[in-house]
Design goal:
The protein is an all-alpha fold. The chain folds into two domains: about 5-85; about 105-130, no CATH class. It is built from six helices and no strands. The radius of gyration is 22 Å and the shape is globular. The relative contact order is 0.11.
Length: about 130
């Protein structure tokens, strides 16, 4: 079944719902709409989406798969510094400065071979592996 929600929208909705669950209070849908105002969705649409997710993953939000929490443990406060500063929209891909892409086993073995052997293999491998 297709949905009109993106993954990052589901994650944001689940994280907000988890905050309410951790506090032991009912979800205030007007508050959720304000937190997700960029989406321009009604409280009913958000409530139906969360109900659908609960039907798939279980009644307790804290038991949802880890992918909804972006690697964070569900027990932690989920208000990230980006949300606190008022930024809206999908989360950006996290990158580390100064890191190279992971090297494969073949690329590692090439690093230990002579340059004559590397010349013969370069024809077969994409440039980014060498």
């Amino acid at each position: 079944m297709r949905t009109s929600f993106h993954d990052w929208e589901d994650k944001q909705l689940v994280r907000i719902a988890l905050e309410f669950e951790n506090e032991g209070t009912r979800v205030t849908w007007d508050y959720v709409v304000r937190r997700m105002e960029r989406l321009r969705l009604t409280p009913r649409e958000l409530k139906v989406r969360l109900t659908t997710l609960k039907g798939t993953y279980g009644k307790r939000v804290r038991d949802f798969p880890r992918c909804f929490f972006c690697g964070a443990t569900p027990d932690r406060l989920l208000l990230s510094s980006g949300e606190a500063s008022g930024s809206r929209g999908p989360p950006r891909a996290m990158t580390r400065r100064g890191t190279s892409p992971p090297r494969t086993h073949l690329a590692r073995s090439l690093a230990s071979t002579s340059s004559a052997e590397q010349q013969s293999v370069r024809v077969l491998l994409p440039v980014n592996l060498l």
